[in-house]
Design goal:
The structure holds 2 protein chains of 2 kinds. Chain A is mainly alpha-helical. Chain A is built from 3 helices and no strands. In chain A, helix 1 runs antiparallel to helix 2 and helix 2 packs antiparallel against helix 3. The model of chain A has no long low-confidence stretch (mean pLDDT 92). Chain B is mostly helical. Classes of the chains: A mainly alpha, B mainly alpha. The interface between A and B is large, with 42 and 48 residues.
Chain lengths: 81, 147
């Protein structure tokens, strides 16, 4: 575990989490959530949990983004908050 | 200052996980849009997984995959007595929380898919994803309510 790398990724994680909840455009929020998932995957790979990291990269950053985009395509893109 | 050095600095992962969990919980409670609530739920889940993975971390530990020193093992016929072959668990990160959280990630994505399907069904009935508008339409007893 590299402490400096860890702290930088944790700071970016909090920033991306806040941005994805603040953005009014739901497609943009989904993209920022995918960046969040990828940062989480980097953090776990760095912590030595490589199996969790590649599952998160495939499932968290991949499949859940596709699900969210499909739902936004079938509903509407704008959010009130 | 002593308290800071003892609790805050060595466990900064835990503090980040608490912050992320509170961001997710705040979104689930306060946000009006159903998709935003689900994004908050996703953040909540990954924060808890981050906590569990942090438990398994050891200082100076390697990933939990055994290194086999094949030529040395082949020469010495007593592998247990060979100091190079003995497995010290302190050299590897604890794999048990990793395996548990692997299941949690898959369950999390299936929960998200289910919730998004229900959101699409709600949109088909109420023509909106905002919580206050849905509640107003339910109170009016307008179309789309066949309960």
């Amino acid at each position: 575990m590299i402490v400096a790398f860890d702290i930088i990724i944790l700071i970016f994680l909090v920033i991306t989490a806040v941005i994805s909840l603040r953005v009014r455009d739901l497609l943009g929020a989904t993209m920022v959530l995918s960046i969040y998932s990828f940062l989480m995957c980097l953090l776990w790979a760095e912590m030595g949990a490589v199996d969790v990291a590649f599952t998160e990269a495939a499932v968290g950053a991949g499949v859940s983004t596709v699900f969210l985009i499909a739902t936004i395509y079938h509903t509407r893109r704008h959010s009130s908050d | 200052m002593d308290l800071l050095n003892q609790y805050l600095i060595p466990h900064f992962n835990y503090w980040a996980y608490v912050i992320l969990m509170m961001i997710g919980m705040h979104a689930m409670i306060v946000k009006n849009n159903l998709i935003k609530k689900l994004i908050g739920m996703s953040i909540f889940q990954t924060a808890i997984i981050l906590f569990y993975v942090s438990i398994g971390v050891k200082e100076g530990a390697d990933i939990p995959v055994l290194h086999h020193h094949a030529p040395e093992v082949a020469e010495s016929h007593t592998p247990a007595a060979d100091p190079h072959h003995a497995v010290d668990p302190d050299h590897y990160a604890n794999p048990l929380p990793h395996v548990l959280m692997l299941t949690a990630i898959v369950v999390g994505v299936s929960t998200l898919g289910m919730a998004l399907a229900i959101s699409q069904s709600i949109y088909k009935d109420f023509d909106t994803l905002e919580e206050n508008e849905i509640l107003a339409k339910i109170k009016q007893g307008g179309p789309g309510i066949d309960v």
